[in-house]
Amino acid sequence: MPDAASVTQRLTIARLGSGGDGVADTPQGPVFIAGTLPGETVLADITGRRGEGIAAALAGVETPSPDRATPPCPHFLVECGACALQHMAMPAYHAWKRGRLVEAMQRAGMAVEVAPLVAAPPGTRRRADLALKRVPHGVALGFHQRGSAAIADLSTCHVLDPRLVSLFRPLREVLKRLGALKREGSAVLNLLDSGPDLLLRTDGPLDSAQRAILAAFGIAHGIPRIAWALGDGVLETAAQSAPVKLVLAGVAVAPPPGAFLQAAPEGEAAIVAAVRAALPRKLAPRARIADLYAGIGTLSFPLGTTHRVAAYEGEAGAVAALDAAARKAGGRVEAIKRDLAYRPLLPAELDAFGAVVLDPPYSGAVEQVAQIARSKVRHAIYVSCNPVALARDAAVLGKAGFKAVSAVPVDQFPWSPHLESVVAFAR
What we know:
24% of the residues lie in helices and 30% in strands. By secondary structure, it is α/β, with parallel strands linked by helices. It folds into 3 domains: 9-68, CATH 2.40.50.140; 92-121 and 247-426, Vaccinia Virus protein VP39 (Rossmann fold, 3-Layer(aba) Sandwich); 127-242, CATH 2.40.50.1070. It has an 8-stranded mixed sheet with strand order 7-21-22-20-19-16-17-18, sandwiched between helices. Strands 1-5-6-4-3-2 form a 6-stranded mixed sheet, with no helix packed on it. α9 (366-374) runs parallel beside α10. The chain is flat, with a radius of gyration of 23 Å.
């Protein structure tokens, strides 16, 4: 490896890595440099090891790529580590994103035509998981800096819905007044159909006077519910002025505080459309569909408009919200609490379904996919947020006789390396 104390090196970027960093190939191994693009000649300072490669900091761009663009956000790379590719022109960026699914299916050994990328526009993300820290001038609020525990104190964000960004300043002000935030904490903002929903975690207790402050803050800023927890403790409602709801295929769901949502409404709509389009044409209306890792019913309720759905979810708050909404709607969705990481559906259970839909976490669904492979299920629709895990799991299905029949890439994380994919398998 080059000496970390050596002079700045001139390198040529060969490609983008899976995290969005430019990669230069050297005799000592790949060098990862954030903020660079393929074809560029750059100056970089070696900073140390990074896995099996070498990390470097960009010192200058000598020969810029024609795909280089001016980042719209003043926080990009300088402070904030949430975005990786704001310096890349949109056409090239979209081609790279779609290429991630192409590569995943190739690694899985599956031949399938990958559809054009469906991209949610910037400024539409409806969830923010923010870090908080008390500092001498008040409270720092934002995302973590790249590769660091330090917080980028944000004034703006070009990814989030402006209605969430508009809460940054007043949230800082109210947090200054809360003794419950002694040193650090977190804030999750979800934008529901009922308005913003706030979950605070602090490192100190919240007394009645502070609850009153939060109640007034919620009313003043149109936040119907504010939940709170001490550290990683049990959540409780600190203040609530009105019910909360998120409408899924006409069904009103009351998500638990901090609930997982698809990142953008446009992204959610694209995923739902791709899943419904991937259902086998000959699937009878009376056929049952298994929706695995169902969350609050993002896919369950749309699928329930045409078929009976058994929705399996392990997180207690999510399955309770799904169950309550399903019972009230009187539809065809049944909510079932089950942790699929520890108790995946077995082949005998899976064989009762005409199709299986799964939307697992980032790590994928190793155990559940193994059971699907052993079952008699003929149709599986996999919604993935991680091309690497998708490639691994798809290869297992391929060995069991499944073929990929459709693949739709959905970008609802602008300028990040993350990609949603909907891939239909049949045998």
